[in-house]
Amino acid sequence: xxxxxxxxxxxxxxxxxxxxxxxxxxxxxxxxxxxxxxxxxxxxxxxxxxxxxxxxxxxxxxxxxxxxxxxxxxxxxxxxxxxxxxxxxxxxxxxxxxxxxxxxxxxxxxxxxxxxxxxxxxxxxxxxxxxxxxxxxxxxxxxxxxxxxxxxxxxxxxxxxxxxxxxxxxxxxxxxxxxxxxxxxxxxxxxxxxxxxxxxxxxxxxxxxxxxxxxxxxxxxxxxxxxxxxxxxxxxxxxxxxxxxxxxxxxxxxxxxxxxxxxxxxxxxxxxxxxxxxxxxxxxxxxxxxxxxxxxxxxxxxxxxxxxxxxxxxxxxxxxxxxxxxxxxxxxxxxxxxxxxxxxxxxxxxxxxxxxxxxxxxxxxxxxxxxxxxxxxxxxxxxxxxxxxxxxxxxxxxxxxxxxxxxxxx
Amino acid sequence: xxxxxxxxxxxxxxxxxxxxxxxxxxxxxxxxxxxxxxxxxxxxxxxxxxxxxxxxxxxxxxxxxxxxxxxxxxxxxxxxxxxxxxxxxxxxxxxxxxxxxxxxxxxxxxxxxxxxxxxxxxxxxxxxxxxxxxxxxxxxxxxxxxxxxxxxxxxxxxxxxxxxxxxxxxxxxxxxxxxxxxxxxxxxxxxxxxxxxxxxxxxxxxxxxxxxxxxxxxxxxxxxxxxxxxxxxxxxxxxxxxxx
Amino acid sequence: xxxxxxxxxxxxxxxxxxxxxxxxxxxxxxxxxxxxxxxxxxxxxxxxxxxxxxxxxxxxxxxxxxxxxxxxxxxxxxxxxxxxxxxxxxxxxxxxxxxxxxxxxxxxxxxxxxxxxxxxxxxxxxxxxxxxxxxxxxxxxxxxxxxxxxxxxxxxxxxxxxxxxxxxxxxxxxxxxxxxxxxxxxxxxxxxxxxxxxxxxxxxxxxxxxxxxxxxxxxxxxxxxxxxxxxxxxxxxxxxxxxxxxxxxxxxxxxxxxxxxxxxxxxxxxxxxxxxx
Lengths: 410, 244, 277
Description:
The complex is a heterotrimer. Chain A is mostly helical. Chain A contains 15 helices and two strands. In chain A, strand 1 and strand 2 form a beta hairpin. Chain A starts with 14 loop residues before the first helix and ends with a helix. Chain B has a four-stranded mixed β-sheet. In chain B, strands 2-3 form a two-stranded antiparallel sheet. A two-stranded antiparallel ribbon of chain B has the order 4-5. In chain B, helix 7 packs across helix 8. By secondary structure, chain C is an alpha+beta fold. Chain C folds into two domains: 34 residues; 167 residues, CATH 2.40.50.100. In chain C, strand 3 and strand 4 form a beta hairpin. The longest helix of chain C has 33 residues. Classes of the chains: A mainly alpha, B alpha+beta, C alpha+beta.
């Protein structure tokens, strides 16, 4: 029925099947929207956050999806600035995923703050010394850039491009995509870093505090590096997932291997720098604030295994795995390594947000625990559902994988 | 502010007086000790020894009014925290606060509180509200401001009388005023000759989390050495070095 | 944010931060506005069709973009990078300088691979043919390959007389089964008459300029090799991917390919053969 909206030369499932696929996501979205309504109408008491856990599940997941969505800017940088033409095969998918991640994060942030209608105050009275100001400005601009990069993909839909003016506008926009990619890279560099800087500047939380390089704490640079490293991994994972669900080969294997190789190289550098940073923190930074590093890990469930898991198990090991050419040639191993790398970053963001807040700072205080409420979980499930819906519709009606047509006929 | 830990008996009157003075609403039914608002909060600190060596002190904790490198001021994205260089008070601007709670994660003293609910007073109780202090709305952060309203009132009164300076007696926060054991001393730290300043600089006085470099204006005084061992970070640091 | 807002101070931090922010916003805004302006300009100067073709051509698979000089063996392998517009191609110009023009007009059509291929006309890469008339108009028709490919269409949308056509723009379109395809215009001109193909032609076109440039159209020795290539391409698309290309066992191609092979992806095949991405 909707065949004329679907690109030529590719096959998509029947409209009925497609609707069956999106109905569960719509239901999850509805539940999530209700949770959001509760939080906005009743207040943030609907969550399990409190004065000790001022940041909870939402901020943690925001940081995680923004790190994973870094694939959008990094692939754009590799393709349009460094001219790695093979990545043309995944750039459209990366842009859509990036758009989903950032718009979802901004949506959740609007629910997370106590007074969403005052969001524009940050722009009106910016405090340039605050990392959060930098985050706000950069993410807003970058969301705009992503939307502008998404538009040409939509305009190239089979039916829409028959309207000549749409195709002409898309053509002109595409000519300037290098500018957008450069601006996107610049903005991403800063906001990925500032997200790390958010915690690195907290002198009141010696677990997270790091010394400054210039005006930014080391976490600024570590977050940029880790986001750039894990972005290609996430693209790899999503591409193979979509391939599996649609039972089609969507990209040539060399593309995935290239993503894995770039990721692996960046991960190695990141792990090296993170190790140096951690050693300095253990021996110098933390004691200078009156806390030994060991004192942070004496609470049950949050022992040093977390640090080991983050840096070695899900950091060094996938980095080494991705260095191996033979391993990269096997898609299943690529996926395993990419998954481990992503888990490492998820752990890193967890440590920086949740573990930091759980730890006591005053000597007469305790280690706190926090379990998110159903409204918080539902809100995030809504973001996931929103992402699935946007991506599914984009995959069906837009060309997310230019190599698909070629590969289908093989 | 200097708080004498040897005198505080944990009665909590300071907390109550603070709530009355600053229009803090009664906590809703679902609030607990982590979601309620207590600008002044009394903690119990024990020496963790078995009877008969067990000892405890009560530690009233407010915003420590850190010096110009306040952790909370530098992190607020929209300048809703203002450091007043003249009085040294860290002021919160509730009407500008977005409720992002970044300042709350930054504060090592956990002195900042968020309005998780709309403040509500039972019918009839609104007559007890202090007209000199504005109420806050749901979704913003608030904290102790050393009864800034009283400072303004004292200055206004002095101005009317043609004076520029106010005496210590004219400006006393609600907690200091309410304390039955006079454990809370309040005065002008800048006046280095006063008794108050001398008490603050006493060798038995210390500030919380000094190595962090926050330079708070609240001092704690105790003659009991176990108190220093437990919560005076400088002593603890020395001990770490000695014992390794 | 702005200097006149209460609380603003001219600190270096403020200046640098806000300076960068406003620059970024300006760059993004300028990019979008510039694209918009250029698009409007293109629309006004009527170059929409050529831009559309440029974009379409870019999205075609490489196998569909072979240079005509590969058919005649002048190049072993060459992909067109000019949208099949040999009128503006430097390489084509150079190659044609050294070629003698063939003055022998072969009257009879060639029969090859089961197709009827008249040689007395010019062919466009989009499978239309062009023949000049005594009255100064040109007749445009669909070649035998394309006719069999489309078979009996469910519908046809023809341009009204008076419509201006542009080379590589849209001439007319067919509706077949679940799919549709537009046929590329081989000439610049104004439509004088349109027919549904029952009389062997589709359009009669009057050129806009007295002299018509037909350099981009295939002729003479190019035609048959090109037909062979196209037939091969079609067979590759129809072949079972597991088995691959098999030897043809002779016999004439059917009159209506989609009818004969109903379960093939005709949507995709039409796109490839009629150069619609």
